[in-house]
Specification:
Blueprint: E1 6-8, H1 33-39, H2 49-62, H3 67-79, H4 82-96, H5 100-121, H6 123-129, H7 131-134, E2 138-143, E3 146-151, E4 160-164, E5 172-183, H8 186-189, E6 195-196, E7 214-215, E8 221-232, H9 238-248, H10 255-284, H11 289-303, H12 308-325, E9 328-330, H13 335-339, E10 344-347, E11 359-364, H14 367-376, H15 388-396, E12 405-411, E13 419-426, E14 431-437, H16 439-444, H17 450-465, E15 469-478, H18 485-488, E16 493-501, H19 508-517, E17 521-525, H20 530-540, E18 546-549, H21 552-555, H22 559-563, E19 570-573, H23 577-589, E20 594-598, H24 604-609, E21 612-616, H25 622-627, E22 630-632, H26 638-677, H27 686-705, H28 728-755, H29 758-779, H30 793-810, H31 813-816, H32 824-848, H33 850-853
Parallel strand pairs: 1-18, 10-17, 10-20, 17-19, 18-19, 20-21, 21-22
Antiparallel strand pairs: 2-3, 2-4, 4-8, 5-6, 5-7, 5-8, 9-22, 11-16, 12-13, 13-14, 14-15, 15-16
Helix pairs in contact: 3-5, 4-5, 4-10, 6-9, 10-11, 10-26, 11-26, 12-26, 12-27, 19-26, 26-27, 26-28, 27-29, 27-30, 28-29, 28-32, 29-30, 29-32
Length: 854
C-alpha cells in the first residue's frame, strides 16, 4: 500500500543543547545517570536535609513576584485604549459643566469596560496557576537514604523520586531504574499510547515524545515502577516552559478591538469638527459667543458614542448565549466576533479530531487466539490494567481466557527490548509464555524463515501506513522457568498481528468540509507519528496533504520555506509546542486569522497566541482551557463550525447595529448643527436626545441581536482580516442611515418652524425621527421580509417607536417633553417627511445591496 502523502525528513546537524549539567553540554536525556548525579551533587541515597533546605530557599526566592503590579499594569492598559480615553475626557468635561448625572453614567461605563479588560488579561496568570493542578500533590523521595513522602512543591533538583503505577511525576526526572515503567504523556506530547521508560540514554536531538529516559512533571504512571533523579522543577520543567510560553504569548487585536479604536478616532474627529465649526459659523452669523460655546459643547456630547461599549457588549453577550446552547462557551466576549473572521483552523489530532481511545481495528491471524495471547502477555489481572493499549485488548477479547492458571514470571516492557511477556503455569502444569510487542522486535525472536519474516513485516507495514498502531503476538511452550527475559523470549511461535486505531470523532469530516465551503482551511499539527497523522488527516477530509516532521526537521526550514507549505493541505507530525506557536505566528504574518484547537498542555502556547483559541471542555487540561478564548463543552469538533457560523452571524449583526447607531449619531449632529448654524434654536432639548438615544440603543442592541444569521453565512468567503471595520460597505450603510434620518427630520423641523413656533417644530422633529429611524433600521436587516415570529423583538421595537411618535405628536405627552402637540397641518408635514425618509431608505437598501454585502 503506497502512502499518498509527501513526508519530508530533514535532520540538520545540531550542537547539543546547553544545560546546567556540567561542561558536556548534554541534555539530561542524553547524559549518563552517573554523570547527572555527580553534576547535581546527589547519589543513590538521595539528598541530605541540608541540601534540600538550601535548594528550597533558592526556589522560593526565585518565585517572589508582585501580583499587584501585574493587575495595575493590566488596568492601565485597559484605560488607555482610544475610546476609553475619549470617554474619560467627556466625563471630566461633564463634571466641570455641572452635568453630574452624565458624568456618573460615563465613569460607570468606563469602570465596567476596564474591569472586563483587566479580568481578561488575568488569563495568562491563571494559566500559570493552573499548572499547580497538573503537578503531583505528593511524591515519594529518598533523602539521607530513607524513603519519605514530600509535597510535590517541595521536590528539588537532585531528589531521587520513586514512582509506580498510579503516581503522578513531580518534576522532570532522568530515569535511573525501571521495571515495566510506562507513563501517560498524551497531554504533553499528543501520543495516545503510554510511553515506555528505561535508564538507557537517547540522542540529544530526540523528539520529546521519544525521550524514553525521561519522566516529565504532571504525567501519570500507568504501569510498572522505577526511580528517577529530578533534573528540573517549576518553570524549568517541560510543563513549566509550556506555561511560560502560554503566558508570554499575546494574541493580536481582534477585529472588534481594532474597530473600537478606529471608531474612537472617527468619533473624536467628528466631535471636534462639530463642536468647533458650528459655533464658529454661528458667531460669524451674529449669534452670542456664550450661547455658541454651550451649543458646541452640546454637539460634542451628542457626538461621542458613549453607549457604544455597552451596545457592543450586549450584542456579543446575547450572541454568546446562543453559542452556549450549541456547546460553545465564551471565555472572552470579543472572541465570538473574532471566530467569524477565522480563515485557518490549526487543529490538534489526539482528543480533538479523534476520541483519544485506542480500539482494536484489525487482527491478522486467528482473532480469538491472537487476542487471548496478547491479553495474557502483560501477566496482570484485568482490574490492574492501566495502559490504554492493554485496556483496548481487554475490551476486544470476548473469548475464553488464555491465561488459565497462575502467573509464574513477568518480563515487563522496556524501550530497549520493545516487548513484554508473561510466563503462566496452566492447570495441566504446562508452562506457556505469552508475548507481545513491536513487530520488528517480536519477529526477530520467532522461528521463521527469512521469507516468512519479511512477509509478516510487510503486513505490519501496510497496517502502519493505514494509520494503525501495530503489535505482534507470539507464544512459546517451556519445560522450566527461564533464567531471564532473553532466555524466555527466544524460539517463539508467531501468532499474529493486531492493529489499533484512535477513532475519528463523529461529524469531524462533515465539519471540515463545511469549513472548507466557508473558505476556512484546516491544518493538522500533532505530536503523533507521521503515518498515523496522515491517515487520520485523509479520513478527516484533508486530501493528499504535505506531511512535515516537527522538531529539528521543521526548525531547519526557513520561514519562507515553511510559509510555502501553509497555503496547501498540511500535516505536521511529531510537532513540538514551539513548532505550533511558530506556525500560528507565520500564518498571522501572512494575513490569516488563525483559530487553534487543542486539549493538552502542549497546545496552550498556541491557544494563547491564536486569534481564537478553542479548547476541549471535557478532556482538555486546565491549562488549555485557561489559555483558550472558547471552550467546547462536549468536545465535539463540529462545534468549531458552529462557532464560526455563530461568529459570522454576530459580526454581521454587529456591523449592521454599529452602522445604524453611528449613522443615527451623524444624523443627530446634522439635525442639531444646521439650525444652529442658521441662527435657529436646536430642534432637540437634552430630554429629547435622551429619548432618541434610548430608542437608538434599543434598536441596535435588542432588535439586531435577536436577528438570525443570514442563510448564506457559511457559503461566503471570510472577511479579509486586513480589511478595516469602516470599509466602503460599512461607510455606505452609515451614510444611508445618516442621509435618510436627516432627510426625514430636518425638513419637518424647518417647515413647521417656518409655519408655527419652535416648540411645535421640535415635536414634529421628534415624531419624524422616531418614525423614520425604525424604517431605516428595517432596511439594514439581512432579511427584511423575515417572518415576525422568527424575531419578534424587531417588529415589537419598531411598533413601540411608531406608537411613541404618535403619542408625542398627538397627545398631552408632548407637554411633558416641553413641546406642543401637532395640529393637522404639522402632523401631515411630519408624516410626509418620515415616509419620504422610509422610501429613501428602502431605495438605498436596494441600490447598495446591503442585505447581501453587510
Amino acid at each position: 500500500m503506497s502512502l499518498r502523502c509527501i513526508v519530508r525528513f530533514i535532520v540538520p546537524s545540531a550542537s547539543l543543547a546547553p544545560s546546567r549539567f556540567g561542561e558536556s553540554r548534554q541534555s539530561p536525556h542524553a547524559a549518563e545517570p552517573a554523570q547527572l548525579l555527580a553534576a547535581l551533587e546527589s547519589g543513590p541515597q538521595g539528598l541530605s536535609a541540608a541540601q534540600v533546605a538550601d535548594r528550597k530557599a533558592a526556589v522560593i526566592e526565585a518565585r517572589k513576584r508582585s501580583p499587584a503590579g501585574a493587575v495595575l499594569a493590566g488596568l492601565a492598559e485597559a484605560l488607555t485604549e482610544p475610546l476609553q480615553l475619549l470617554l474619560i475626557a467627556v466625563g471630566v468635561l461633564s463634571a466641570i459643566f455641572g452635568e453630574a448625572r452624565d458624568a456618573i453614567a460615563i465613569f460607570v461605563i468606563i469602570a465596567l469596560v476596564a474591569t472586563v479588560e483587566t479580568v481578561s488579561e488575568a488569563r495568562a496568570r491563571n494559566a500559570l496557576r493552573s499548572l499547580r493542578g497538573l503537578s503531583a500533590p505528593t511524591a515519594r523521595v529518598r533523602r539521607d537514604g530513607d524513603v519519605r513522602t514530600a509535597l510535590g512543591a517541595d521536590v528539588v533538583a537532585g531528589d531521587i523520586v520513586l514512582v509506580e503505577a498510579g503516581d503522578v511525576m513531580a518534576g522532570d526526572g532522568r530515569v535511573l531504574h525501571a521495571e515495566g515503567l510506562r507513563a501517560d504523556e498524551s497531554a504533553l506530547t499528543g501520543e495516545p499510547v503510554a510511553a515506555a521508560k528505561g535508564p538507557d540514554a537517547v540522542a540529544s536531538q530526540t523528539a520529546l515524545a521519544e525521550r524514553s529516559s525521561m519522566l516529565f512533571e504532571g504525567t501519570p504512571i500507568v504501569s510498572g515502577r522505577g526511580e528517577a533523579v529530578v533534573v528540573a522543577t517549576g518553570s524549568q520543567t517541560e510543563l513549566g516552559r509550556l506555561g511560560g510560553l502560554a503566558s508570554d504569548a499575546r494574541e493580536p487585536l481582534t477585529p472588534l478591538q481594532r474597530a473600537m479604536a478606529e471608531l474612537a478616532r472617527a468619533a473624536l474627529v467628528l466631535a471636534v469638527a462639530a463642536s468647533v465649526l458650528v459655533p464658529l459659523v454661528g458667531v460669524l452669523e451674529g449669534q452670542p459667543v456664550e450661547k455658541m460655546l454651550l451649543a458646541g459643547l452640546t454637539l460634542a456630547f451628542a457626538t461621542i458614542p458613549e453607549e457604544l461599549p455597552i451596545l457592543v457588549t450586549a450584542l456579543v453577550a446575547v450572541g454568546g448565549l446562543r453559542l452556549a446552547r450549541q456547546g460553545v462557551l465564551l471565555r472572552r466576549l470579543r472572541s465570538a466576533e473574532a471566530a467569524g473572521g477565522v480563515t485557518v483552523v490549526l487543529t490538534d489530532k489526539t482528543g480533538t479530531l479523534t476520541l483519544n481511545e485506542l480500539r482494536v481495528d484489525a487482527v491478522e491471524g486467528p482473532r480469538g487466539e491472537v487476542l487471548a495471547v496478547a491479553n495474557a502477555a502483560h501477566g496482570l489481572s484485568p482490574d490492574a490494567v492501566r495502559d490504554p493499549l492493554d485496556a483496548a485488548l481487554a475490551v476486544a477479547d470476548r473469548g475464553p481466557a488464555k491465561a488459565e492458571g497462575e502467573p509464574v514470571a513477568r518480563y515487563p516492557f522496556d524501550p530497549v527490548r520493545k516487548r513484554e511477556s508473561a510466563l503462566w503455569q496452566r492447570r495441566d502444569g504446562v508452562l506457556m509464555l505469552s508475548l507481545k510487542g513491536a513487530p520488528e522486535s517480536v519477529l526477530a525472536a520467532c522461528r521463521l524463515s527469512v521469507h516468512e519474516r519479511d512477509a509478516r513485516l510487510e503486513a505490519a507495514a501496510e497496517l502502519a501506513q493505514a494509520g494503525r498502531r501495530v503489535i505482534a503476538v507470539a507464544e512459546r511452550r517451556l519445560d522450566e522457568v527461564p533464567e531471564s527475559a532473553d532466555h524466555a523470549e527466544a524460539d517463539l511461535d508467531f501468532v499474529g498481528l493486531i492493529g489499533f486505531v484512535d477513532p475519528l470523532r463523529p461529524g469531524v469530516a462533515e465539519a471540515v468540509e463545511a469549513l472548507a465551503g466557508a473558505g476556512v482551511r484546516t491544518l493538522m499539527v500533532t505530536g503523533d507519528h507521521p503515518l498515523t497523522a496522515a491517515a487520520i488527516a485523509r479520513e478527516a477530509g484533508l486530501c493528499d496533504p504535505d506531511v512535515l516532521l516537527g522538531g529539528a526537521p521543521l526548525a531547519a526550514l526557513s520561514d519562507d520555506e515553511l510559509s510555502s507549505h501553509l497555503s496547501r493541505q498540511l500535516v505536521v507530525a511529531r510537532a513540538t509546542p514551539a513548532d505550533k506557536l511558530r506556525l500560528v505566528r507565520l500564518l498571522q504574518q501572512r494575513g490569516e486569522a488563525v483559530a487553534v484547537t487543542g486539549d493538552g498542555v502542549n497546545d496552550a502556547p498556541a491557544l494563547a497566541a491564536a486569534d481564537v483559541g478553542i479548547a476541549m471542555g471535557r478532556r482538555g487540561t486546565e491549562l488549555a482551557r485557561e489559555a483558550a478564548d472558547l471552550v467546547l463543552t462536549d468536545d465535539a469538533y463540529p462545534a468549531v463550525m458552529q462557532a464560526v457560523r455563530g461568529g459570522r452571524g454576530i459580526a454581521a449583526q454587529l456591523r449592521r447595529a454599529v452602522a445604524f447607531y453611528l449613522g443615527a449619531k451623524v444624523a443627530l449632529v446634522a439635525t442639531v448643527a444646521v439650525p444652529l448654524a442658521l441662527g435657529l434654536p436646536s430642534p432637540f432639548e437634552p430630554v429629547h436626545i435622551v429619548l432618541l438615544e434610548l430608542f437608538m440603543d434599543l434598536g441596535a442592541s435588542v432588535a439586531f441581536v435577536s436577528e438570525p444569521a443570514a442563510p448564506d453565512v457559511m457559503i461566503r468567503d471570510p472577511r479579509d482580516p486586513a480589511t478595516r471595520f469602516l470599509d466602503r460597505v460599512q461607510l455606505a450603510a452609515i451614510a444611508l442611515t445618516a442621509v435618510t434620518l436627516t432627510a426625514a427630520t430636518l425638513p419637518a423641523y424647518l417647515l413647521v418652524e417656518s409655519l408655527d413656533d419652535a416648540e411645535t417644530a421640535s415635536a414634529a422633529a421628534v415624531a419624524a425621527w422616531l418614525s423614520a429611524h425604525a424604517a431605516v433600521a428595517w432596511a439594514l436587516r439581512a432579511r427584511p421580509r423575515l417572518a415576525f415570529r422568527v424575531n419578534p423583538a424587531f417588529p415589537a421595537w419598531a411598533l413601540i417607536a411608531l406608537a411613541t411618535a404618535a403619542l408625542v405628536a398627538l397627545t398631552p405627552l408632548a407637554t411633558a417633553l416641553g413641546v406642543q402637540a401637532l395640529d393637522g397641518r404639522a402632523a401631515a408635514i411630519a408624516a410626509t417627511a418620515a415616509a419620504a425618509g422610509a422610501l429613501l431608505a428602502a431605495a438605498g437598501q436596494r441600490v447598495l445591496a446591503l442585505p447581501q454585502r453587510l
